[in-house]
Design a protein that fits this description.
Elements (H helix, E strand, L loop, with lengths): L1 E5 L12 H13 L4 E4 L3 H7 L2 H17 L5 E4 L2 E3 L4 H7 L10 E5 L9 H10 L3 E5 L5 H5 L1 H9 L3 E5 H4 L5 H12 L5 E3 L14 H11 L1 H8 L1 H7 L26
Helix pairs in contact: 10-11, 11-12
Length: about 260
């Protein structure tokens, strides 16, 4: 398996604090079948407090620790890029990192609200030949209120990455129900841990969530979300996705969460 969203680098954001945390997270992931993890520190934390060069140096250091401890897992370079007006320019100048240097970039929309520049910024990103992989849409208010918005982005060539824990209710029953709906509608392309710690609800252990997803979409489609599609992204290959299934009852998701 390949995990494309992980706050595993120590001391750079709200994820791992110490190198020991990184090693513990990597060991837990490797023991459960993960071969590689894309380290995705928050762009703002890196640009404000560190640098892209620092991320690469830290990755090399952490991979050395994993080899020393006999952990058969590789950490790869990436970034969780907040969607803001600076993002297209930051991708162009290299201060916003792509996913393992590929044509893909992990992009996080604002958790709350829907700024009027969202679609324009995403379009500008695509004009650069970069494919946005939208981070945890099931936890983003704009998509919670209108899942059809995610469908429209997928139809424009973007991909979505759902947090694995959302499938099993680690972020609440309402997020779980929406996640299951997105799975049924073929609007989920990648399942990733978004890990922040070696244990607990944000652990890097994927198999229980993979099993739950397989119960909804079948084993072949579920495994593609943690093997085939993530590997293609890391290898900078074109990802072809299935046509989403339109949900005639989707408009009910426009209601506030309290209406569920």
């Amino acid at each position: 398996m390949y995990d494309l969203h992980a706050h595993i680098l120590p001391g750079v954001d709200d994820g791992a604090k110490l190198p020991e945390d990184t090693v513990a997270m990597a060991r837990a992931a490797a023991d459960s079948g993960t071969l590689a993890i894309l380290a995705t520190p928050h762009r703002r934390d890196i640009t404000e407090n560190h640098s892209v060069l620092y991320v690469h140096d830290l990755l090399a250091e952490m991979n050395g620790l994993l080899r020393r401890d006999g952990i058969d897992l590789e950490l790869l370079p990436g970034m969780e890029n907040h969607l803001d007006l600076d993002l297209p320019g930051e991708l162009s100048n290299g201060r916003a990192m792509r996913m393992n240097g590929s044509r893909y970039a992990l992009v996080e929309l604002p958790f709350f609200g829907s700024p009027n520049y969202v679609e324009d910024v995403l379009y500008q990103v695509q004009l650069q030949g970069v494919t946005p992989v939208l981070a945890h849409p099931e936890r983003i208010e704009a998509f919670q209120r209108d899942p059809d918005l995610l469908e429209s982005f997928v139809e424009r060539g973007m991909l979505s990455q759902v947090t694995a824990g959302s499938v099993v209710g680690r972020f609440g029953s309402k997020v779980r129900r929406l996640t299951h709906s997105l799975l049924r509608r073929r609007l989920v392309h990648v399942l990733s841990s978004d890990t922040h710690s070696p244990r607990g609800p944000r652990s890097p252990v994927l198999p229980p969530c993979l099993e739950a997803a397989a119960a909804i979409v079948g084993e072949e489609r579920a495994r593609a979300m943690v093997v085939d599609t993530p590997k293609a992204i890391l290898d900078d290959l074109l990802v072809e996705v299935e046509t989403p299934i339109r949900d005639g009852g989707a408009r009910r998701w426009w209601r506030p969460w309290g209406g569920f």
